[in-house]
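Dear Dr. H.,

I hope your travels went smoothly. While you were away I took the liberty of generating a structure for the chain from your last submission, since the lab meeting agenda had it listed for discussion. I wanted you to have the full record in hand beforehand rather than looking at slides cold. The sequence, exactly as received, is reproduced here:
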Amino acid sequence: MEPKIQLDPMTETALRSLHDIAVPPPVSWLPQTWGWAALAVLLGIAVLVAFLIWLRRYRRNAYRREALRLLDGIEADIRNPARREKGVHDLSELLKRTALAAWPRSDVAALTGQAWLQRMDSRGADKALTRLLDDLEYHDGTAIAALPPDSGNELILNSRRWIRRHHVSA
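The corresponding predicted structure, in token form, is as follows:
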């Protein structure tokens, strides 16, 4: 136990008259002027509009994501010589379905042969893709099975590039 310190009466009276330090109220996080509030509202609206634009673009490109997913399965068919003919025909069908999802049916559905290849060229297809499609689309299974692996890889690569990058006007 500590010994009690004896203070003189004047010091004791002075200590009793002391009060705690007055602390100011905390600073408010709310803006002090209407300009900051307006800026916060405009910033919120801009973020909302940017999110809605991103969401609309994401939904519009759903057909591209689906086509790329299907292309992965077709790629396995094209790499296998026994199923290469089926893979080439499935690829042609996939590209046509992708075009039908991107543009009006009346503009795409009736196109075949050179007209279809010209449409793909005008919409961003590489010349190599249209050349390979033109060469392979109407061949029989033996000619397609004899296709070198590099041509199959090039066909898949160019198809994937076209699906990702073809231009669709708003």
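Two observations you may find useful: The mean pLDDT is 83. The CA atoms of residues 59 and 65 lie 10 Å apart.

With kind regards,
E. W.
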